[in-house]
C-alpha cells in the first residue's frame, strides 16, 4: 500500500524517562525542527559542535542523527553535513503489522523496544499474538492482501515443523515479503536478502561456558528442551565453547528433550541421574530461567550447595534475579532487538527498495549473580570470555538485558 503525505507532521512523543542519551538528544533536535527553530534546507551544527554543546560522545551524537534520518526529518550528506528536511513533506504515519508469538517474558521486552521505536518514528502498529501457533500465523499472513498494512515485523514459529510444512511456510513468507517491506525479529531466514534483527544465541551460550571455565569449572552440563526456536543455536554455542576450551562433551552431561520442563517428576529424576554419574557436573547451563529454577531445587534436595558444589547459569534473564540465590544468566538484548528491528523497517519505509539490505546480530551479555560463586581473575576472564560482555548485578539492580 503506498504511503501518502499529511497536511501536517505527526505529533511526536516526549522523551521517555530513562531513555538512552542518544534518544533524548534525538527528541530534543526533533522538537526544534518541528517547532521551526531550524528551517528546511538549513544545516544542523556539525557533529563535533553537538558533542561540545551537549557534552555527549561522538557516537551518541551520530546515533541521534541516524534516528532523525530514519524518521525522514534530516538528510545526512557525506562530507557535507546533516540538513533539515521539510517535516510537511514526510510520508504519512505508516501502519505496521507486528506478529509475535507472545507478549510476555522474552518477547514482552522485544515488543517494548518495537513500540518505542515505531512511536518515535511517528508510525502506528497493529499487533497479532500467535501463541507459537504456526497455522494461525499463516492464516494471518494469507489475509494481508486486504489488511492495509505498510510494513511488517515478523517472528514466525518455524521451529519444529516437518520439512514440507517448513518449506510451505517459507514460501508464504517470501510472498509476503514481495507484498510489503518486512523485517524479521529474533528470527533469521535462509535468504540473503531478508532483513532481520536478532540476538546471537551461539555467542551467548559460549559466553556462559567460558565464564564457568574461568571459574575453574570443567564438568559443564547442559539442560533444556528442544522445542523452541533458539534451542539448537544455544546448544551449538555450548558445544562450540567446550570444543574451543578442550573440554569433554558427552551424553552423560546433556539432558535435552522436546518436552523438558513439562514432565515434572521425570525431569527431576533425569537431573538426579545426571548428578549420580561417577563424574557428576560441577556446573550446569540451563536453557531458560524457569528450567534453571527447577534444577536448582533438585540440587538442593540432593544436598548440594549452589554455587559451592555446583554452579548454575540460565539462558534468558527474564526472572533470573527472583531465585532465592539470584541466578547468573545470559541476557540477550531483548529490548534492543525489538528497537533495531523497528528501526530497520522505518528506514526501509523511508528510503524504499534502494536502501541496502541490513542484518543486525546482537551479542548477549552475562549478568553475574549468586549462583556462580566468585568472580574470576581478570586474566582468566580475558582468556575465557573473548568478546563477551560480563557485568555483575547488585542486589538493588536485577540488571535485565536491554
Mean of residue pLDDT values:
86
Distance between the termini: 33 Å
Query: What is the ordering of alpha helices and beta strands?
Result: HHHEEEHEHEHEEHEHEHEHEEHEEHE
Q: Please report the first level of CATH classification, the CATH class of the largest domain.
A: Alpha Beta
Going by CATH, the architecture of the largest domain would be 3-Layer(aba) Sandwich
Low-confidence stretches: 1-16, 379-386, 394-402
How much is the radius of gyration in Å?
Answer: 24 Å
Helix percent band: 25-40%
CATH superfamily of the largest domain: Response regulator
Q: State the helix count.
A: 12
Number of domains: 3
Strand content: 15-25%
Textual characterization of the structure:
It is a single chain. The protein folds into 3 domains: 21-89, Arc Repressor Mutant, subunit A (Orthogonal Bundle), CATH 1.10.10; 95-198 and 334-362, Response regulator (Rossmann fold), CATH 3.40.50.2300; 201-333 and 365-392, Rossmann fold (3-Layer(aba) Sandwich), CATH 3.40.50.2300. The relative contact order is 0.12. It has 12 helices and 15 strands. The protein is α/β, with parallel strands linked by helices. Helix 4 runs parallel beside helix 11 (334-351), helix 7 packs antiparallel against helix 12 and helix 9 (265-275) packs across helix 10. The longest helix is centred in the last third of the chain and has 18 residues, at 334-351. The chain has a 7-stranded mixed β-sheet, with helices on both faces.
